[in-house]
Amino acid sequence: MNFPENVNYSSDHEWVRVEGNEAYVGITDFAQDELGEIVYVDVTSEGETLSQGEVFGSIEAVKTVSDLMMPLSGEILEVNAKLEDAPELVNQDPFGEGWIIRVALKDSGELDQLMSASAYKKFIGK
After folding, report:
1. Is 124 inside any structural domain?
2. Which of 24, 98, 100, 108 has the fewest CB atoms below 10 angstroms from its CB?
3. Which domain does 43 fall in, by range?
4. What contacts 24+ positions apart, CB below 8 Å, involve 49-58?
């Protein structure tokens, strides 16, 4: 299981990689492994500004559907278009090609509420 050090982790199993005033968001390797084969990613909130903890979409696996939660407040600038035809990218490369949204950060101070890779490992019992 992969736990990159260059991202922050939420208790809802999303990751955040900050690049300047923007951030990429996806689900963790642990989350994709727990969900199983991902068949659909549904994000209809592009262009909206959401608060930390709000639902920004859902992810559908063969056996379940889970809400996607905003790890940080901000405006959703882009949804990863590759996931429309290839949702399995979330399983294959959750921290790279399988990113889900790109966000304009509203409050970078919220990063302090997220976990480091080592804290997230402890959180999930790894």
Report:
1. no
2. 108
3. 8-106
4. 49/73, 49/74, 49/75, 49/76, 49/106, 50/74, 50/76, 52/110, 52/113, 53/12, 56/101, 57/100, 57/101
pLDDT digits over 41-76, tens only?
Answer: 999 999 999 999 999 999 999 989 999 999 999 999
Tally of domains within the chain: 1
Give the CA diameter of the chain.
37
- The whole model's pTM is what? 0.96
Distances (CA, A) of 75 to 28, 100, 107: 21, 14, 11
CA distance 38 to 35: 7
Containing 76, the helix (H) or strand (E) segment is strand 74-79
